[in-house]
Write a structure and sequence with these properties.
Elements: H1 12-19, E1 23-24, H2 26-36, H3 49-67, E2 72-73, H4 75-117, H5 123-132, E3 137-152, E4 155-167, E5 173-186, E6 192-202
Parallel strand pairs: 1-2
Antiparallel strand pairs: 3-4, 4-5, 5-6
Helix pairs in contact: 2-3, 2-4, 3-4
Length: about 200
């Protein structure tokens, strides 16, 4: 005997909804989540990997959504993630470049004053003065090259080469190259202190 039980029939509109169902792209969701935390890149240069990852995930999501437009959703969160990651990465790179320029400028200012005065209470200055000759005085300082700055923990290390002009007895002038390594340390009061780690005459 035939089964007279009738199965529920979906309306035409409900049939269309079932047919048009599309899944949300997992890559798009992941990209958005990583993109939202991308501003942490401003805290450390290593954390620039966070917005870089968001960019990669967003790009993968957009490609997959484009290739499977009838099956996947999520273009909007992927685009938002792309914008957040791009802005965060750009800001982090700009901040890193500006910080390094500022550190290098501070180092040149400090070194120029240090070489000109060679303070008697500084062991590095005393040792350098012995290499230059006790009868010589520094009359001119010219910056030649900066290596770095490089960040080590909470300190900045800068290596620099200067050409200095020496004036000795009888107004004799000599020019020598001096290589220095500087260290910048943040103080508890928010200021920064520079010191010369070593200084030597370059042959």
């Amino acid at each position: 005997m035939p089964d007279s039980t009738k199965l529920p029939h979906l309306s035409g509109r409900e049939d269309t909804r079932v047919t048009e169902y599309r899944a949300v792209s997992g890559s798009a969701v992941a990209a958005l989540l990583v993109g939202l935390v991308s501003p942490v890149a401003l805290m450390s240069e290593w954390l620039a990997l966070v917005p870089a990852l968001a960019l990669l995930l967003a790009a993968i999501a957009l490609v997959r959504i484009r290739m499977h437009a009838s099956e996947l959703l999520g273009r909007t969160p992927a685009v938002i993630a792309l914008a957040l990651a791009t802005a965060s990465l750009s800001a982090a790179l700009t901040d890193a470049v500006y910080t390094r320029w500022l550190i290098a400028t501070e180092a040149r200012q400090f070194t120029g004053q240090w070489l000109t005065s060679l303070p008697a209470g500084d062991d590095r200055a005393v040792a350098l003065r012995e290499q230059l000759g006790e009868q010589q005085s520094v009359s001119e300082v010219a910056h030649v090259e900066t290596v770095g700055p490089a960040r080590r923990n909470a300190q900045w290390i800068v290596a620099e080469i200067y050409r200095i002009r020496l004036t000795g007895p009888g107004e004799q002038h000599d020019k020598v190259l001096v290589r220095l390594e500087l260290q910048r340390t943040n103080q508890t009061d928010g200021t920064a202190a520079w010191r010369v780690r070593y200084a030597e005459v370059v042959d």
